[in-house]
Write a structure and sequence with these properties.
The chain is an alpha/beta fold and about 270 residues long. It has one domain: Aldolase class I (TIM Barrel), CATH 3.20.20.70. The protein has a 9-stranded parallel sheet. Strand 6, helix 9 and strand 7 form a beta-alpha-beta unit. Helix 2 runs parallel beside helix 13, helix 6 runs parallel beside helix 8 and helix 11 packs across helix 13. The longest helix has 20 residues. The protein is globular, with a radius of gyration of 17 Å. The two termini are about 25 Å apart.
Length: about 270
């Protein structure tokens, strides 16, 4: 059991899903992102995802891309990301890094895993890395995360076959990330109808917690996803609050207000 597994189990014991909140490191500044993430935790976020800014975020929609581009332009580095992890992990909330594979590989796989663990990080989500690639000798992400005692989270999608679902969940630790729609991230007017079906398909092959992302932006949507998933992942909606804020303090309050709203939503869900 890890701190991430403990928090997910505690939420399940309360009869609810966990609320997982995302912001990229470095926006509106390194310190500003850390403060906003800590405010989200104080307002009800159970688990934190910190995005590692990358110049080619293929799976991210325009909202996250805007914040990531600004973070890169201001000079945010991988070391800044790890410093942000240290600040947020000090709250006690399980803190994961969400990163494309290329920045980790450039930083050094073993170096990154060791640095993340040293900063108090719980694990990492690698959206463009499959378990097959993670086990290759020139990648060795499985060995690096094992050595650093980090949880590793891979993605499944509606297009995943039963064989792929089984293989992916066998290599996940903490939870498996269920991308509820095909396409890039971004808030949506309604939750994808395929989300519940995907969760059910995963549960037929594995007992690992299933957390759903891509699109949640309101308490009602959070409640809907929480009625069938172990975790509700919210990213673009938090980023939008920071982007729209006139200054860092207003952004911090805006994400805290949204976190409180979403936390109420997951607690209002019909018991799973």
């Amino acid at each position: 059991m890890s701190v991430l597994s403990d928090v997910l189990a505690a939420a399940r014991g309360e009869g609810r899903a966990a609320l997982i909140g995302y912001l990229p490191a470095g926006y509106p500044s390194v310190a500003g992102a850390a403060d906003a993430l800590c405010a989200m935790v104080a307002a009800g976020v159970d688990v934190v995802e910190i995005g590692l800014p990358y110049s080619d975020p293929l799976m991210d929609g325009p909202t996250i891309q805007r914040a990531v581009e600004a973070a890169l332009e201001s000079g945010t580095t991988t070391d800044d990301v790890l410093a942000t992890v240290r600040s947020v992990a000090a709250t006690g909330a399980p803190t994961l890094v969400m990163s494309y594979w290329n920045p980790i590989q450039r930083y050094g796989v073993d170096r990154f895993a060791a640095g993340l663990a040293d900063a108090g990080g719980a694990g990492a989500i690698t959206p463009d890395l499959t378990p097959d690639e993670a086990s290759r000798a020139d990648t060795d992400w499985l060995a690096a995360t094992d050595a650093a005692s980090l949880d590793r989270v891979f993605l499944v999608a509606p297009s995943s076959t039963e064989q792929r679902l089984r293989y992916t969940t066998e290599h996940c630790r903490g939870f498996v990330y269920a991308a509820s729609t095909m396409g890039v991230t971004g808030t949506r007017a309604s939750v994808s109808g395929g989300a519940k079906e995907l969760v059910e398909r995963v549960r037929r092959v594995s007992d690992i917690p299933v957390c759903v992302g891509l699109g949640v932006s309101s308490a009602a949507q959070a409640a809907e996803v929480a009625s069938f998933a172990d975790g509700v992942i919210v990213g673009s909606a938090f980023v939008r609050r920071v982007l729209d804020a006139p200054d860092a303090q207003a952004g911090e309050k805006a994400v805290a207000d949204l976190a409180a709203e979403l936390a109420d939503g997951v607690r209002q869900a019909t018991p799973r």
